[in-house]
Amino acid sequence: MDAGAARRRPQEVMSGRFKQDPPSSASSDRPITHKLKKHMEGKTLLMDSTVHISSSGGEETATTRQMEDEESTTDIGEMEGSHPTSPRPPSAGPPPQTPTQGALRSPRSRRQRTTSQSQPSRSREPILRGRRRTIYTAGRPPWYDCQGQLVEPFVIGVCGGSASGKTTVARKIIEELDVPWVTLLSLDSFYKVLSEKQHEEAARNEYNFDHPDAFDFELVAKTLVRLKEGKKVEVPIYNFVTHRRETKTKTMYGANVIIFEGILAFYSPDVLKLLDMKVFVDTDSDERLVRRLQRDIAERGRELDGVLKQYFKFVKPAFDYYIAPSMVHADIIVPRGGENEVAINLIAQNVMTQLQQRGFKLREKLANANFGIARPNSLHLLPSTPQIRGLHTFIRNKDTPRDEFIFYSKRLIRLVIEHALTLLPFTDVTVETPQGIPYEGKRIATEKICGVSILRAGETMENALCEVLKDVRIGKILIQTNLDTGEPELYYLRLPKDIKDYHIFLMDATVATGAAAIMAIRVLLDHEVTEEHISLCSLLMTEQGVHNIAYAFPKVRIVTTAVDPCVNEKFYIVPGIGNFGDRYFGTEPSDQ
Ligand SMILES: Nc1ncnc2c1ncn2[C@@H]1O[C@H](COP(=O)(O)OP(=O)(O)O)[C@@H](O)[C@H]1O
Ligand SMILES: Nc1ccn([C@@H]2O[C@H](COP(=O)(O)O)[C@@H](O)[C@H]2O)c(=O)n1
């Protein structure tokens, strides 16, 4: 279809009820006032042959699943219906039939989806199975730019009547986008907790779930703001059968794209201003009723009479009074919902353009960033003594056997950790010697020190830290390179819950472009660790890596035993050390 061939809304734009009118069950299901109609003139309406999109903004992502024990542990990658290789089907059941065709089956006749769509999907292929954890194929991508600053996700709001196909449209946009990091957030997750009396009303289909008062919009806005800031949020999971929030929540972190869908997605001005693109799904009222009957009976544990009673008493009037008028806010109107492939395609194209404009290639940018020759003050390079050069000679030599590689690496690691310790604040203390004479000494000014290793090479540095600090805590961050994009991705976190109170020794054996280290620092900052409280400890870094990290996070102390000139086209350090993890753990690929 031709871009720019936007069509005007046809005759169905008719007069009807507007916001000031009282809700009435007798009102039309297509009530658009003159004022609304006028507003619609400037809108994009996506029909089979339509095409013109207006929207604003654009940006970045992620979502996670969290498992709590004494520490905060997160498997990154339970993307909300977002994995390109395993999209969830739009509907769990057979094609819908009209109620009269006998489609109103028992709630137990097929698997029910009883909870809100913000819950995690289950179809993921794990790549790593630990003793206690499973780590998934999709990770959290960079959510910051070369300056280490947050890049906001692009937020699409999808509004429309109940069963108009909002979720279906959202899922189709996700499939079409082909961006691995998309989060689907549903307004349903923000239904308020009901009192006992309200539960009794709900059981009789006499509670109004379609009124704005039923939702916690303040929490919606707070959640979206935090996601836009790249911060972690706990999203309630709503159960439509029990009308309650589940005890578990879903952890989310934002994404390249966040899709927020709900019947009143455009109701709150505070929420509205957080949406970069607003899509209204406009489906015929009869169709909506038929779909709702089928779905509520099949998936939400309802009876025919109850669904109809609730529909005419609350759902339809609320549509007329609140939802239809909110169409004025839409940038794009999608008639008929999920089957409108032209519209979905165009929305996806528009979002992709906006994402591409901001650029996905963080590591490449870091590798090519230009800096002056002066090294930053935050770099603490151990003096290049014969001892240190001697240790480097062992570990850089490609012919050094593994046992010697491990032995000399450990010695260097110990030196770098000891050096980093000297950079911590110390206070004066006086102790008495066995001779009864005071000794004016020093003590590290903090007891809260945590080592955080960037897996897997950083793990080789943990022992040295434990040997020099008796009660040190250890956290872990797994970052891997996506072989398709070359970008670092965050897969797994295990950090003390009160990490913000700690001085952190962030450990990675080598730092090339600095992409992984910057991601790890970003994670720590997102957990409210103070930048000044982070010491990045590494055996070998590159000039570029040092500059990139110092540029993004000038207050982070960088401690290393050597700085090499550059990285090659594969982002390996030159002259370098080879793949430290492979050499240390003996996992080097054989020549055959
Ligand atoms: N184009 C369509 N054709 C037939 N059934 C559909 C279509 N779109 C959605 N449905 C079905 O209608 C029901 C409601 O769709 P959904 O996308 O969940 O709507 P909403 O999120 O607006 O409530 C689901 O059971 C879904 O499978
Ligand atoms: N306990 C509840 C909560 C909500 N509803 C109805 O759900 C509709 C919104 O969900 P959609 O997926 O259809 O957008 C809304 O119209 C409520 O009436 C419910 O029945 N029970």
From TrEMBL:
<comment type="function">
    <text>May contribute to UTP accumulation needed for blast transformation and proliferation.</text>
</comment>
<protein>
    <recommendedName>
        <fullName>Uridine kinase</fullName>
        <ecNumber>2.7.1.48</ecNumber>
    </recommendedName>
</protein>
<dbReference type="GO" id="GO:0005634">
    <property type="term" value="C:nucleus"/>
</dbReference>
<feature type="domain" description="Phosphoribulokinase/uridine kinase">
    <location>
        <begin position="155"/>
        <end position="343"/>
    </location>
</feature>
<keyword id="KW-0808">Transferase</keyword>
<dbReference type="InterPro" id="IPR029057">
    <property type="entry name" value="PRTase-like"/>
</dbReference>
<dbReference type="InterPro" id="IPR027417">
    <property type="entry name" value="P-loop_NTPase"/>
</dbReference>
<keyword id="KW-0547">Nucleotide-binding</keyword>
<dbReference type="InterPro" id="IPR000764">
    <property type="entry name" value="Uridine_kinase-like"/>
</dbReference>
<keyword id="KW-0963">Cytoplasm</keyword>
<dbReference type="InterPro" id="IPR006083">
    <property type="entry name" value="PRK/URK"/>
</dbReference>
<keyword id="KW-0539">Nucleus</keyword>
<dbReference type="Pfam" id="PF14681">
    <property type="entry name" value="UPRTase"/>
</dbReference>
<keyword id="KW-0832">Ubl conjugation</keyword>
<feature type="compositionally biased region" description="Pro residues">
    <location>
        <begin position="86"/>
        <end position="98"/>
    </location>
</feature>
<dbReference type="Pfam" id="PF00485">
    <property type="entry name" value="PRK"/>
</dbReference>
<dbReference type="GO" id="GO:0008655">
    <property type="term" value="P:pyrimidine-containing compound salvage"/>
</dbReference>
<keyword id="KW-0067">ATP-binding</keyword>
<feature type="compositionally biased region" description="Polar residues">
    <location>
        <begin position="51"/>
        <end position="65"/>
    </location>
</feature>
<feature type="domain" description="Phosphoribosyltransferase">
    <location>
        <begin position="383"/>
        <end position="587"/>
    </location>
</feature>
<feature type="region of interest" description="Disordered">
    <location>
        <begin position="1"/>
        <end position="134"/>
    </location>
</feature>
<dbReference type="InterPro" id="IPR000836">
    <property type="entry name" value="PRTase_dom"/>
</dbReference>
<keyword id="KW-0597">Phosphoprotein</keyword>
<comment type="similarity">
    <text>Belongs to the uridine kinase family.</text>
</comment>
<dbReference type="GO" id="GO:0004849">
    <property type="term" value="F:uridine kinase activity"/>
</dbReference>
<dbReference type="GO" id="GO:0005737">
    <property type="term" value="C:cytoplasm"/>
</dbReference>
<dbReference type="GO" id="GO:0005524">
    <property type="term" value="F:ATP binding"/>
</dbReference>
<comment type="pathway">
    <text>Pyrimidine metabolism; UMP biosynthesis via salvage pathway; UMP from uridine: step 1/1.</text>
</comment>
<keyword id="KW-0418">Kinase</keyword>
<comment type="pathway">
    <text>Pyrimidine metabolism; CTP biosynthesis via salvage pathway; CTP from cytidine: step 1/3.</text>
</comment>
<comment type="subunit">
    <text>Interacts with RNF19B.</text>
</comment>
